[in-house]
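Moderator note: this is an archived Q&A kept for reference. The question asked for a predicted structure of one protein chain; the sequence and the answer are reproduced below.
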Amino acid sequence: MRNIKAFGLLILAILTGLAAAVYASGWVSRQGSISSNKVVVAVVDIELGSKINAQMLSSVDWPSGSVPVGAFNELKDVQDRVAKVSVLRGEAILEGKLAPVGTKGGLSAVIASGKRAMTVRVNDVVGVAGFALPGNYVDVMVNAQQEKAKGEEGKQISKTVLEHVLVLAVAQEVGRDETKPKVVSAVTLELSLEDSEKLDLARSVGTLSLVLRNQTDKTKVVTTGITKSQLFGEKEILPVVALAAPAAAKPRAIVGKPAVAPLAECVEVIQSSGRALNCF
């Protein structure tokens, strides 16, 4: 009886092994039948603005049905191109991640079309304690003295002059992978030509401050700025304007009726010779 059970378990084990072998063989054959293409990938982390060379690249098999749009098949098509965004190791090199052919490496390759790069001096406070890193967005605020009008005193005002400005670089670093704060002396911002003029004027008339904002928040907020009196809740004294006294109304003559003279005051005087009424 025991031999029959042992023999049955042995046969069951053999059948299970055969089924697994058949399944594995079919799976391997199916994988071999999937067509693939060669795709160029990065073998090291490539920083934005870097010129790509052959040592940074490799060619791997990629399933034909899932080849990314803009991928390259030959290493020679990618060499000497400049990365305009960071590329991680093992990531496919795509046309959209590269600067136009002939672009030289450096910060100029990172600047978007129609934009300008402008650097401003900062300190540990103005630079948001070093948290304004490449790839972050900031608002630019200026604290300045308003121009004096005739007979008035210039007011101190703080106002946001630029919103949602991309930080291209801090000091001389453009890498966007690190998240640790870096206290630096200069920050390079990506601006339109009009915003570059605003920033140049703002830094010459007052003190600049950077305000870090959420990267996904693109809401524009229009403010009028705030003065010292408004900050402390003081009421502003409006200038006193002297008003001219209204002209006295002239009496209107009534047509068809004689003018009536105002009533005079009369005093009766009694003397020994008689009485007299004197009016004046």
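Archived answer notes: The CA atoms of residues 10 and 37 lie 45 Å apart.
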